[in-house]
């Protein structure tokens, strides 16, 4: 479960979106897609929002949070003293991981459609296959982090991605839209590596904070980091005067984002087992406290 919630959830959502795109593009062909097809996809997105609302209403608080006896920790503890350094490092890790996602899985529809020239039908299938691969990669990386540790797992994938992601980007752009199978294989490997790198990030962030700060610390770190990472595709497009310039800009941004990710993870401590240690310490305290 360590990788399923973050990267696995994104992969599942992308797979459903790709499936919807394949069905809608088959029904609304040619100019009809520009007139009505995109509207159908828009309303499909609204349905996913309703699903999210349903899930949020059914999710219960953790026993650790419910059993917390001390007064709530002030929000300012996130940005003062040692908490400030932890927050900055967490945001850097999330930004590097988020940028890898947005520059690969997030930018893939544009890369395949506008740069490589893959036809719409084949593009939908490639995106669907890539999304399914992401789910498997997230689960695998999460399990690996349970055995090797969060830090070692993310650092290992990050170091591989420094070379692999820009190389795969160049490969996809060079092959061309007429070689669908080769493009699909390269895309699958690219999204597997990029999403595996940040798959344990959600549990890593949770383990960085005590119960009183966990929800706020994780939310601020994740959302600010992914907000910064989400700016990268826009910068790639702005700095690419021609479509032919996109692969080189994309490769450079991937190197930069992955380097930030690697350096931040290198500076961070291992967190595996932190929640269990906190739970054990609380149990010991409860047992030794007089009634």
UniProtKB/TrEMBL annotation:
<protein>
    <submittedName>
        <fullName>L-Proline/Glycine betaine transporter ProP</fullName>
    </submittedName>
</protein>
<feature type="transmembrane region" description="Helical">
    <location>
        <begin position="217"/>
        <end position="238"/>
    </location>
</feature>
<feature type="transmembrane region" description="Helical">
    <location>
        <begin position="86"/>
        <end position="104"/>
    </location>
</feature>
<dbReference type="InterPro" id="IPR020846">
    <property type="entry name" value="MFS_dom"/>
</dbReference>
<dbReference type="Pfam" id="PF07690">
    <property type="entry name" value="MFS_1"/>
</dbReference>
<keyword id="KW-0812">Transmembrane</keyword>
<feature type="transmembrane region" description="Helical">
    <location>
        <begin position="36"/>
        <end position="56"/>
    </location>
</feature>
<dbReference type="GO" id="GO:0005886">
    <property type="term" value="C:plasma membrane"/>
</dbReference>
<feature type="domain" description="Major facilitator superfamily (MFS) profile">
    <location>
        <begin position="1"/>
        <end position="272"/>
    </location>
</feature>
<keyword id="KW-1003">Cell membrane</keyword>
<dbReference type="InterPro" id="IPR011701">
    <property type="entry name" value="MFS"/>
</dbReference>
<dbReference type="InterPro" id="IPR005829">
    <property type="entry name" value="Sugar_transporter_CS"/>
</dbReference>
<keyword id="KW-0813">Transport</keyword>
<dbReference type="InterPro" id="IPR036259">
    <property type="entry name" value="MFS_trans_sf"/>
</dbReference>
<feature type="transmembrane region" description="Helical">
    <location>
        <begin position="179"/>
        <end position="205"/>
    </location>
</feature>
<feature type="transmembrane region" description="Helical">
    <location>
        <begin position="124"/>
        <end position="142"/>
    </location>
</feature>
<dbReference type="GO" id="GO:0022857">
    <property type="term" value="F:transmembrane transporter activity"/>
</dbReference>
<keyword id="KW-0472">Membrane</keyword>
<feature type="transmembrane region" description="Helical">
    <location>
        <begin position="250"/>
        <end position="269"/>
    </location>
</feature>
<keyword id="KW-1133">Transmembrane helix</keyword>
<feature type="transmembrane region" description="Helical">
    <location>
        <begin position="154"/>
        <end position="173"/>
    </location>
</feature>
